[in-house]
Amino acid sequence: MSLIELENITKIYASDGIETPVLKGVSFKIEKGEFVSIMGPSGSGKSTILHIMGFLDRPTDGLYRFNGKTMDEMSDVDLARIRNKEIGFVFQMFFLLPRTTVLENVKLPLLYSEVPEKNWQKLAEEAVKAVGLEHRMYHDASKLSGGEKQRVAIARALVNKPKVIFADEPTGNLDSKSGGVVMDILEKLNDEDKITIVLITHESETAEYAERIIKIKDGEVDSDRIVENRRKIGDGYHK
Amino acid sequence: MAFKAIGINRSRSTLTILGIVIGIAAIIAVMSIGKITESMIYNQIQSLGSGIIFVEPGSHSFDASSMFARRINEKDLEALKNPEKVHFVKYIAPVSIYSGKVTYGGSNKTYTILGTSGDAMDMFDYNVDYGRMFTDDDVKSGTQVALLGSNVKEYLFGMGDPIGEKIKIKDTNFKVIGYYNDRAQKGMLDLNKTVVIPYTAVNRYLKGTDTFEQLAVKSESDSTVGATAEDIRYTLRETHDIDDPSKDDFSVATPDDFMKQIGSVMAIVTILLTSVAAISLVVGGIGIMNIMLVSVSERTREIGLRKALGATPGDISNQFLFESIILTILGGIIGILFGVGLSYVAMLIINKLSTASEASFVVPPNAILIGFGVSAFVGIVFGLYPARSAAKKHPIEALRYE
Ligand SMILES: Nc1ncnc2c1ncn2[C@@H]1O[C@H](COP(=O)(O)OP(=O)(O)OP(=O)(O)O)[C@@H](O)[C@H]1O
Ligand SMILES: [Mg+2]
Fold first, then answer.
1. Hey, where are the domains in chain B?
2. Please, which of A150, B61, B93, B165 could form a disulfide with B119 given CB 3.0 to 4.6 Å?
3. What's the whole-model pTM score?
4. What is the ipTM of this complex?
5. Interchain CB distance below 8 Å, B309 and A77
6. Is A153 a domain residue?
7. Which residues surround ligand 1 with Cβ inside 6 Å?
């Protein structure tokens, strides 16, 4: 059984009587432990696919199965639960709470989990250590550098020990050096902790951290190939 | 985290909770002023007993002529003592007040001299603790005998026994025949600083008139007070040659009148404060709703993020409801403090206005509970709509919100 299965997923936005078909029947599978990049031109529907895979949005039609569970049969509360327990998100814009410490930001998903409160501190500290920010634990998150902010966001995605991390252009707002650090962390999480990673990027260097690249064009899968010379930690990173 | 969000817009929040503060303060004030007047009425009844009627010269309508109105005199007293004319009278005690220097040995001091009759002793519990009372005969003949309040005895005699000693009031000698222990003050008179002598003696030796400041009449029971008071009015009109009741040059006040006055003032105060409370709470509630809607819209992205991280619609709704309740309870706490202060001021004013008895300061504990309850309730009612609208936001659209 694959971790992620999309079968003929369509998404049509309708506003003011105008229907915009964004996804026109997308199908692919992602296995447990895979590292997959999604590439494609702007507006091709990459983020839309990621949102559906992350239970943030529902498709207009088609079947989406995650870990054997079908989205159709789930209520909005079920979606929130599965996002909290099984999924971590990393966004281009970081989305950290301002005037809040790094540690408190990382604890945020625990607030909505069934994890007992006495374990929160330990789990959050572990996650912060995993992204190498233990010296910034009690700093105001809004005062960090962009690279550090994205690492806090990764720690936050990690804290509930998810099966998969969905990252939508995580290096899009970063310079090449801090982008490299972020990619090294994602690579390590995939390699050592066996966390499935799905990454959207429009930079081919970044995409090549993955073992597989799916290209989307006009709401359809254009190509789906294995990366031959996959980048490894420490390979360096150049834009 | 909720507190932090409120902190960001502290000045805006402060203005918004003003309505809640005023509303809750008014609720507390209504409840404790009610309790305070209740306690005062209770004290009044406790100290004077029920069924007492006060007869005083002057119409109580504050025109200048009432200043020169005819005094109540011994002829009036005799007329009122006639059981054919005034029914159901149990006691009738004249009150003749004089303020004068009391001398014994080398020491002297000015005290209140109360001239009255034996009836007052039973009516106001003025029976002496040591020595004897003056008799009806003493009153009839104006005997120069005196009863000393505890301060007077203490000042003039110290530890010594005053009974049988002669004191001088103005230029007249009085023989001390009894004295009092410390007494709690009832009504206007502080018995501790008073010398009590027969009213006939006050009028003859000290004032040189035959008039009284007041007559206190006790009717047989609560149910006969009205009839007795009416008989008194009728009789005094006769002795004062008055045909038109609106020209009365005396006033007859019963505890009922007093209570009725307080009651009607209280009713007005209650209605006023209750409407102030209701209006302020609604206005404050709408303010809270507004500030919460602004907060929801300003924090749309935060809502999107929290949803992405697994917050259910219920979690989001609870967060904003909690924030709005914190705001209103904060207003409630300040309002409770203001309300307590307001009630204290009200108590001071009530005590200033009513010379009859002391109101004690009470804030009923359930007023504070109700204050908290109402502020939380306003927080829930007016926080509900913003909280629901936050909960309904689509996570992706919320995250995309600029
Ligand atoms: N709520 C919406 N209503 C209408 N159209 C929408 C809505 N959301 C997205 N779209 C459209 O769907 C298309 C795909 O959007 P999507 O964000 O998935 O693209 P993308 O591949 O992630 O692009 P980018 O690389 O620029 O992020 C775009 O043309 C966008 O305008
Ligand atoms: Mg996108």
1. 2-45+259-400, 52-253
2. B93
3. 0.72
4. 0.95
5. no
6. yes
7. A 13, 15, 20, 22, 40, 42-48
